[in-house]
């Protein structure tokens, strides 16, 4: 053990390292290729000396610790045997400057009707998505999803989805370093179901726990996938509509909905039209809108940097009930008009935010961010400002576990963990309440 080895390590700057042998699995469950052994190996520090002496006779502390994984060059190190085990004894601490930064997280998302489990690895600045499995609770056409029924769905499928994620990643629970879960915002009962699973696995697997803000998960996953530098973020989903920009380790909300979210507005109108909920109501609204030809004037409600959708929804619901049966309007024209009006409002407040923070990038996140027409309208605005739009596909726009794992891992690497007694949920967990300790730009 490391304790037994410490007493035989000379003082000064010596470090004892156990080499990970060829074809032996690392802590991440990955085999090291034989060719890599010739040039670069991985080792684990099992004992550390006090550090080199300065001219004043003081020890320089080494920037490594017992248990750290390090990369070993093909030279240096004196082979020694301790307790019948082979080790390398290093005198020069400079070769240990590059500590292997490899952490694996599993993330659980269940704030609405999608139960997602994702596994991600951060290694030396590189992000690898190992698994991203999702199961969606689909209700019959014309019906929404209740919190209670959604929670039952999550509880029934979470173990299967977790097994699938571990299988896709080719990992076992012992390979996981941290468990992340959605703390909020979202629907209470589904959030609680997922939090209980994360809490239970944290105890069973003896792993630390990290509660993640759902909105921050979307933003950080979007930034990682698109490589957006410091964009204005338009976060649009079934439960949220916000225009966000980063400043001083906080995501500041510049504007938001004053009532219902844009995704909720689209979903409710889809239910009125009795559209299918598979794969999602918003997707089917988008398909109907593509066939629309006649634009119908609807209320346009932008109030400063905020927007309001409930009045528009009430107006178009009235039109649908009165004019659809007579053939005066078509469902396609109504969907087209609704999309154009809502998206124009979002483009307006996003452009004002870009002007205020002097940004030339827009990042679209959230389920509604998958909408092609929204991306087109935002691109037209951004191009006029010599800017660009960054968007992702349905793998990352729609709620998923990988975004929770990624954001949780970013927080975990700054030293943040959620104590078991604080592993609760918060339905109204605002984006600007989170300390973004991993960003300094």
UniProtKB/TrEMBL annotation:
Where does it sit, as one GO cellular component term? nucleus
Tell me what reaction this enzyme catalyses: L-threonylcarbamoyladenylate + adenosine(37) in tRNA = N(6)-L-threonylcarbamoyladenosine(37) in tRNA + AMP + H(+)
List, alphabetically, the CDD domains matched: ASKHA_NBD_OSGEP_like_euk, cpn10
Q: Which Gene3D superfamilies match?
A: 3.30.420.40, GroES chaperonin
Question: Where, subcellularly, is it found?
Answer: Cytoplasm; Nucleus
Q: State the UniProt keywords alphabetically.
A: Acyltransferase, Chaperone, Cytoplasm, Metal-binding, Nucleus, Transferase, tRNA processing
An annotated GO BP: tRNA threonylcarbamoyladenosine modification
Give the residues annotated as coiled coil.
none
Q: Which InterPro entries match?
A: ATPase_NBD, Chaperonin_GroES, Chaperonin_GroES_sf, Gcp-like_dom, GroES-like_sf, KAE1/TsaD, Kae1_archaea_euk, Peptidase_M22_CS
Which Pfam families does the UniProt entry name for this protein? Answer: Cpn10, TsaD
> Which GO molecular function entries does the Swiss-Prot or TrEMBL record give?
ATP binding; metal ion binding; protein folding chaperone; tRNA N(6)-L-threonylcarbamoyladenine synthase activity
Report domain Gcp-like positions.
133-405
Q: Which PROSITE patterns match?
A: GLYCOPROTEASE (PS01016)
Query: Which EC number(s) does UniProt give?
Result: 2.3.1.234
PANTHER family linked to this entry: TRNA N6-ADENOSINE THREONYLCARBAMOYLTRANSFERASE (PTHR11735)
Report the sequence similarity comment from the record.
Answer: Belongs to the GroES chaperonin family.
Reported function: Eukaryotic CPN10 homolog which is essential for mitochondrial protein biogenesis, together with CPN60. Binds to CPN60 in the presence of Mg-ATP and suppresses the ATPase activity of the latter.
What name does this protein carry? N(6)-L-threonylcarbamoyladenine synthase
Per the UniProt record, the source organism is: Thamnidium elegans
């Amino acid at each position: 053990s490391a304790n037994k080895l410490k007493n035989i390590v000379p003082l000064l700057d010596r470090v004892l390292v156990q080499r990970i042998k060829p074809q032996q699995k690392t802590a991440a469950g990955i085999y090291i290729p034989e060719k890599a052994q010739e040039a670069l190996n991985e080792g684990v520090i099992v004992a550390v000396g006090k550090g080199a002496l300065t001219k004043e006779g003081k020890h320089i502390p080494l920037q490594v610790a017992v248990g750290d994984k390090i990369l070993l060059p093909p030279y240096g190190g004196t082979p020694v045997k301790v307790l019948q085990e082979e080790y390398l004894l290093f005198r020069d601490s400079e070769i240990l400057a590059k500590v292997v930064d490899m952490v694996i997280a599993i993330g659980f998302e269940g704030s609405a009707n999608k139960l997602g489990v994702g596994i991600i690895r951060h290694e030396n600045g590189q992000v690898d998505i190992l698994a991203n499995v999702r199961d969606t609770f689909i209700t019959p056409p014309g019906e929404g999803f209740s919190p209670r029924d959604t929670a039952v769905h999550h509880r029934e499928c979470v173990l299967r989805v977790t097994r699938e994620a571990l299988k896709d990643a080719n990992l076992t629970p012992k390979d996981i370093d941290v468990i992340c879960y959605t703390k909020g915002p979202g629907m209470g009962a589904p959030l609680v179901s997922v939090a209980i699973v994360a809490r239970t696995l944290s105890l069973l697997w003896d792993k630390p726990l990290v509660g993640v803000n759902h909105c921050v998960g979307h933003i950080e996953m979007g930034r990682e996938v698109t490589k957006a530098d410091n964009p204005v973020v338009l976060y649009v989903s079934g439960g949220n509509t916000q225009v966000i920009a980063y400043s001083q380790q906080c995501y500041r909300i510049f504007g938001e909905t004053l009532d219902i979210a844009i995704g909720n507005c689209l979903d409710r109108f889809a239910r009125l039209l009795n559209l299918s909920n598979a794969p999602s109501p918003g997707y089917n609204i988008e398909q109907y809108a593509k066939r629309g030809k006649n634009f119908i004037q609807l209320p346009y409600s932008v109030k400063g940097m905020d927007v309001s959708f409930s009045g528009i929804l009430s107006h178009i619901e009235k039109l649908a009930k009165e004019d659809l049966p007579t053939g005066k309007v078509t469902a396609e024209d109504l969907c087209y008009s609704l999309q154009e009006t809502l998206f124009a409002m979002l483009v307006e407040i996003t452009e004002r935010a870009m002007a205020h923070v002097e940004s030339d990038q827009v990042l679209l996140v959230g389920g509604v961010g998958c909408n092609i027409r929204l991306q087109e309208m935002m691109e037209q605005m951004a191009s006029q400002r010599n800017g660009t739009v960054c968007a992702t596909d349905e793998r990352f726009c729609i709620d998923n576990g990988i975004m929770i794992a990624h954001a949780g891992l970013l927080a975990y690497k700054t030293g943040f963990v959620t104590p078991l007694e604080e592993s609760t949920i918060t339905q109204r967990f605002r984006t600007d309440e989170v300390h973004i300790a991993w960003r300094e730009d």
